[in-house]
């Protein structure tokens, strides 16, 4: 198929998969899970099949229809979107394998609904990744919020539903109250919302409105979890671990930082923002979020809540890198999306495996667990070292590029923030590793082994990806360098 057709197939395929999963669920769990794996594998084949066209500087596009004059539903493949789509589609397959082990091992109810909503969320993710304008992006951004709500509220008890409402309320109120007005402003000022390399707002929006419009975007795109619009993310930790992995590594938070980066590059334009004094504020909430979220993570006793605040901090690395407005930092932002995805999904997979095997959820309960669950804790250790930025993990590569951009810009705030947060990351991850590997297990601990094979297999794969990305990151750098070359 040609690239234009492939764009539409990438969006429709998970929708068709959701229907097939729902029908297969009436027959039996094996067929249902087979349909999940087949659909996710087929999505990889479709999405990754567009890479050669993109690497050859092709930019396939397709318009589905026009809602009203100047407002169309359109899709276009460009490097940032391709990176996001390739990452999400690849991790969906691994997450699906993990989900089989987790959902069965934990005896979760409503598993068919779980797999259906997961597929719907991936369809929305593909729409976000390939959106050709702000209107299309907004439609699929909202679809992603709505399709993940049933996943967050999966358990169905009163406490879970309350937390899920916080998740839904913050994401919908910010997108409708801030993100949508920003989009309307852009269409009114520029006459279009199309994503154009170099931006569309130069000469259309004057000072100090540039800074105000940027604020509407940054805080309206709450999926990026820049403080103070971050509370939805810890609230969502009531969801099953595969959903947490979806939220933190595969789709939701990546949709947030991807959208902010795309708005900076394709709507404002890096050069236009760099020349606008009123946009300089973005560095400070990003730096504040990184430091404060790291300090909050340092105080957590629950494993998943620690990982949630770690995610909030790590996401703002991407926002800060984009705000540095230098080529190395822009590449670093893209690399960090990948490195964080591999490392954080590994950490959540490991936390879920620990829960399935031992029902342990608190950090103090991890004493000596490395002896009982060596594969799981080895993977957890790799993910933790990547969050710190220790070689040979992918997190080292992304921090290197962001630091290079900060040096290039002579940005002392960014330099201090990266160094301080690295120390804080080490302060809350290294004690866990020491406790797991070198302390003795509690005397009354119940015997247990590893989680089901599917879960352990998935977390080992993502741990290997975290290590492998340290060496094999060239295609990502080359892909995102196409954007940088277009800006210079």
From TrEMBL:
A UniProt-annotated Pfam family: Proton_antipo_M
Superkingdom of source: Bacteria
Membrane topology: Multi-pass membrane protein
Transmembrane segments: 6-25, 37-56, 80-102, 114-132, 138-154, 166-190, 210-233, 245-269, 281-299, 306-325, 337-357, 378-402, 414-438, 450-472
Claim: Transmembrane is one of the keywords in the record: yes
Keywords, in A-Z order: Cell membrane, Membrane, Transmembrane, Transmembrane helix
Subcellular location: Cell membrane; Membrane
Residue ranges constituting the NADH:quinone oxidoreductase/Mrp antiporter transmembrane domain according to the UniProt record: 131-423
Record flagged with keyword Transmembrane: yes
Chain coiled-coil ranges: none
One GO location term (cellular component): plasma membrane
Protein family per UniProt: Belongs to the CPA3 antiporters (TC 2.A.63) subunit D family.
Name of the featured protein: Monovalent cation/H+ antiporter subunit D family protein
């Amino acid at each position: 198929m040609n690239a234009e057709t492939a764009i539409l197939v990438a969006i429709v395929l998970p929708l068709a998969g959701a229907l097939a999963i729902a029908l297969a669920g009436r027959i039996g769990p094996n067929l249902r899970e087979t349909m999940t794996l087949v659909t996710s594998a087929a999505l990889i084949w479709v999405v990754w099949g567009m890479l050669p066209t993109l690497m050859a500087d092709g930019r396939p596009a397709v318009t589905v229809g026009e809602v009203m004059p100047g407002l169309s539903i359109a899709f276009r493949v460009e490097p940032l979107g391709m990176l996001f789509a390739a990452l999400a589609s690849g991790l969906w397959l691994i997450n699906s394998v993990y989900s089989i082990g987790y959902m069965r091992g934990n005896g979760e109810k409503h598993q068919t609904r779980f797999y259906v909503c997961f597929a719907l969320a991936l369809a929305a993710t593909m729409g976000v990744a390939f959106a050709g304008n702000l209107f299309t992006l907004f439609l699929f951004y909202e679809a992603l919020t709505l399709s993940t709500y049933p996943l967050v509220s999966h358990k169905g008890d009163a406490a879970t539903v309350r937390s899920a409402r916080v998740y839904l309320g913050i994401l919908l109120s910010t997108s409708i109250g801030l993100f949508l007005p920003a989009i309307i402003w852009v269409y009114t000022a520029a006459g279009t919302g199309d994503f154009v390399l170099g931006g569309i707002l130069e000469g259309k929006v004057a000072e100090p409105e540039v800074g105000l419009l940027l604020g509407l975007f940054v805080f309206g795109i709450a999926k990026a979890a820049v403080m103070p619009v971050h509370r939805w993310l810890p609230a969502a930790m009531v969801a099953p671990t595969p959903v947490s992995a979806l939220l933190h590594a595969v789709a939701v938070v990546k949709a947030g930082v991807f959208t902010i980066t795309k708005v900076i590059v394709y709507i404002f334009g890096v050069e236009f923002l760099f020349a606008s004094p009123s946009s300089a504020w973005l560095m400070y909430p990003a730096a504040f979020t990184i430091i404060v979220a790291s300090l909050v993570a340092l105080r957590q006793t629950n494993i998943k809540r620690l990982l949630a605040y770690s995610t909030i901090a790590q996401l703002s690395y991407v926002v800060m890198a984009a705000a540095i407005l230098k080529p190395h930092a822009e590449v670093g932002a893209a690399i960090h999306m990948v490195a964080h995805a591999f490392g954080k999904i590994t950490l959540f997979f490991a936390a879920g495996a620990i829960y399935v095997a031992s029902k342990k959820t608190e950090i103090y309960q991890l004493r000596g667990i490395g002896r009982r669950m060596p594969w799981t804790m080895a993977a957890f250790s790799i993910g933790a070292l990547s969050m710190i930025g220790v070689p040979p993990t992918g997190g080292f590569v992304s921090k290197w590029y962001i630091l290079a951009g900060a040096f290039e810009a002579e940005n002392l705030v960014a330099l201090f923030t990266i160094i301080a947060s690295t120390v804080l990351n080490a302060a809350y991850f290294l004690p866990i590793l020491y406790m797991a590997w070198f302390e003795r297990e509690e005397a009354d601990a119940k015997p247990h082994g590893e989680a089901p094979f599917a879960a352990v297999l998935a977390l080992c794969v993502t741990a290997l990806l975290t290590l492998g990305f340290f060496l094999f990151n060239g295609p990502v750098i080359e892909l995102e360098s196409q954007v940088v070359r277009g800006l210079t």
